[in-house]
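In the previous lecture we treated proteins in isolation. Real proteins rarely work alone, and many bind small molecules. This record shows how such a complex is specified: first the sequence, then the SMILES for glutathione.
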Amino acid sequence: MARVLYELCGIDEGLRFSPYCWRVRYALAHKGLAVETRPWHFTDKAALAFANHDKVPVLVDGDAVVVESYEILRYLDRTYPEAPLLGDGLAEARARFFKAYAERALAPAMLRTIIMDLLNAIHPKDRDYFRESREKRFGRTLEEFHSPAKGLAQLDAALEPLRGCLKEADFIDGAAPAAADYLLFGNFMWARCVSSADLVSNADPVYAWLERMLDCHDGLGRSALRVTDIEGAYR
Ligand SMILES: N[C@@H](CCC(=O)N[C@@H](CS)C(=O)NCC(=O)O)C(=O)O
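The predicted 3D structure, ligand included, written as tokens:
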């Protein structure tokens, strides 16, 4: 059976912007594993019933059905041990810090900056669901939550440890990228696909890292469709 990855799509089926799915796309590329991707919308819950899950990514690999992006990375390392992503033992335990950093420091700052662009990139049939579920989560309207100036300041401060790390090597995981890089970079792909906001100035060492990440694995990130590429889709 072909390897299949269910991925969130937006206003166009080719617009794939989930930060969690991007982690997995990079992880699969890192392992040199081919994958067929299937577009999925927020409201297509029935399409994931086979996995007993309601979120993407979902990876189907032969008989295995794996959910949760970090668990998918662990599964890939167990099943395809060449070219480790997370490593094992201490290394894997430490990689969890990057998962938490991406989700708890970078994502909230980016979300404040790009939330209205994100809504615009989401398929119209998903927008009411997205608005209702996120407004419930934030305890305020999307418009009240939206605050690019605050989001960018928050992101600038949150990137300081990454700047320090990039003084030592080209990638977080050393001379070549691996899971720590993919865990963080997924968030930047999320923002890049739905928005034209400049999150990082081009004098920032993080900018140079982003450029390297966009180029790696044959330009996987750089060749991804962005909302700005879709005629009439970007305000
Ligand atoms: N912890 C999950 C989070 C996955 C997640 O939140 N995916 C979003 C897309 S970016 C989703 O499918 N959301 C469905 C929903 O909000 O109903 C993972 O790491 O895979």
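Summary for your notes: Residues 4-79 form a domain with the Glutaredoxin fold (CATH 3.40.30.10). The chain is about 55% helix and 10% strand.
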